[in-house]
């Protein structure tokens, strides 16, 4: 009840909610408790640092997941206070201060930081930082944070990150760009979080376990997903580590991996490779099923395809194409929200897409290796596009009506059912009055436009505004 009331209060008060919460709720609650007041002061300092606030929150999220599973004892509270002190000293240490340890080896928090701060060390490349990881893993630390403390170290951080991404002993959880204030200067620095891969085995032990389970290349195996990041999913196969690269999850466009693979679910795969030196199996889900390129079901640009929406995001949709005869799923694809409808969506005759929606679309892009298939629903509105291009050739000036306004451009109706687009860069050529055109241009206005080209696969015209002001 208290938490729900706090949520409602925050919604009502907006930015003012934080001050009300501190003054009317938090301060009276801790008044007279010196330990809590000191703890809250340290949390405030960590919060102001920006960078270490993200670390503290991430570790308490991880602790909550483990606490429910492992049922920790009463000593957790004391260790949590010590961990807050550890992060506080890191967040408030003076530049060049190297007296504070970068590791916290407790029972519930086992955390290490790899800081890209010393220019002398940075000049030696990623080697010293790789060795720091080796030492931290050997000590049994489970959560590793790679931090670039200045924006100039982005290239080195990317190089180290690429190495760690290929290291089977750890799995990347997050890559953040954290806003940091340093005096009058404000900038973003990288913060990359890795966790120990509990399934990793030394090469000899790994080979024995593979032989014991009878796993070979081409075998079909079943395991439980342990973790998912942007590049791969880690699977527990009776004590063996398996890795499913994002491109091996489905034929076609995969999209965000966490939309398709969830931790703790059982998953069936085929073994692509046994990587003995690194101690893991490379797996695939999509190769359990025939490639659509092999049996004639590959989508062809310009053809119509039936599809079903599987995920809806802010800017685009994840789809699965359907076989017309059997209705079975064939290949994954994607579609931008702009390609779903040329006109604004509403709850009436043009509702927005939802998961499970089935519709027809035109293939506007397809790669030969089935990694990316792009569809558009709008192009079905102009079945005789060739005739429209003869009526409105390049250079033709006409008056068109605004049918949709988006961040990246304006959609017009040249005539009913014949769409055209003016992108944001064309708008900017006319001057600052229309730079913020989402506020200055509204659906229903008419503008003089010039035809600049055609998108034949997508069946729409590219346009330029002839003048700033609308007609009439």
How would you characterize the overall build of this protein?
By secondary structure, this protein is α+β, with helices and mostly antiparallel strands. 29% of the residues lie in helices and 32% in strands. The protein contains 13 helices and 20 strands. The chain has helices at residues 2-13, 17-30, 34-49, 51-70, 76-92, 119-122, 127-138, 154-165, 203-213, 337-340, 385-391, 424-428, 437-440; strands spanning 103-105, 110-116, 143-148, 170-182, 185-196, 220-228, 232-237, 240-245, 266-275, 280-284, 304-312, 316-322, 329-336, 358-366, 373-376, 397-406, 409-415, 418-423, 446-455, 460-465. The strands form four sheets. It has a five-stranded mixed beta sheet, with helices on both faces. Strands 6-7-8-10-9 form a five-stranded mixed barrel. Helix 3 (34-49) packs across helix 4 (51-70) and helix 3 (34-49) crosses helix 5 (76-92). The longest helix has 20 residues, at 51-70. The chain starts with a helix and ends in a 7-residue tail after the last strand. The mean pLDDT is 77.
């Amino acid at each position: 009840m208290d938490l729900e009331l706090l949520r409602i209060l925050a919604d009502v008060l907006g930015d003012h909610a934080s001050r009300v919460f501190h003054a009317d709720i938090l301060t009276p609650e801790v008044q007279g408790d010196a330990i809590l007041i000191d703890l809250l002061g340290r949390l405030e300092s960590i919060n102001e640092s920006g960078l270490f606030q993200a670390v503290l929150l991430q570790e308490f999220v991880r602790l909550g997941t483990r606490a429910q599973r492992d049922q920790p004892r009463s000593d957790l509270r004391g260790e949590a206070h010590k961990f807050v002190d550890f992060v506080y000293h890191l967040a408030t240490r003076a530049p060049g201060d190297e007296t504070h340890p970068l590791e916290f080896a407790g029972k519930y928090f086992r955390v290490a930081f790899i800081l890209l701060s010393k220019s002398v060390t940075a000049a030696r490349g990623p080697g010293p930082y790789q060795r720091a990881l080796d030492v931290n893993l050997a000590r049994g630390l489970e959560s590793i944070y790679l931090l670039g403390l200045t924006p100039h170290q982005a290239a080195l951080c990317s190089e180290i990150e690429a190495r760690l991404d290929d290291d089977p002993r750890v799995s990347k959880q997050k890559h953040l760009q954290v806003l940091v204030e340093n005096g009058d200067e404000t900038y973003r620095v990288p913060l990359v979080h890795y966790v120990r891969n509990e399934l990793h085995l030394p090469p000899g032990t790994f080979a024995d376990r593979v032989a014991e389970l009878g796993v070979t290349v081409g075998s079909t195996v079943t395991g439980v997903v342990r973790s998912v990041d942007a590049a791969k999913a880690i699977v527990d196969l009776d004590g063996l580590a398996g890795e499913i690269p994002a491109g091996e999850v489905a034929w076609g466009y995969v999209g965000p991996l966490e939309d398709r693979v969830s931790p703790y679910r059982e998953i069936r795969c085929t073994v692509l490779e046994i990587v003995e030196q690194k101690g893991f199996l490379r797996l695939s889900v999509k190769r359990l099923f025939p490639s659509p390129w092999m049996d004639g079901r590959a989508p062809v640009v310009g053809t119509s395809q039936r599809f079903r929406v599987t995920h809806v995001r802010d800017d685009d949709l994840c789809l699965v194409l359907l076989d017309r005869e059997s209705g079975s799923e064939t290949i994954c694809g994607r579609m931008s929200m702009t390609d779903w409808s040329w006109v604004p969506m509403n709850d009436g005759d043009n509702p927005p897409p939802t998961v499970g929606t089935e519709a027809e679309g035109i293939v506007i892009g397809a790669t030969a290796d089935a990694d990316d298939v792009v569809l558009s629903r709008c192009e079905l509105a102009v079945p005789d596009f060739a005739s429209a291009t003869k009526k409105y050739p390049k250079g033709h000036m006409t008056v068109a009506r605004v049918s949709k306004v988006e961040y990246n451009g304006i959609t017009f109706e040249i005539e009913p059912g014949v769409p055209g687009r003016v992108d944001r860069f064309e708008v900017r050529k006319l001057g600052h009055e229309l730079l913020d055109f989402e506020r200055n241009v509204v659906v229903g206005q008419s503008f003089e436009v010039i035809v600049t080209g055609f998108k034949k696969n997508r069946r729409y015209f590219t346009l330029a505004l002839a003048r700033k002001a609308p007609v009439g």
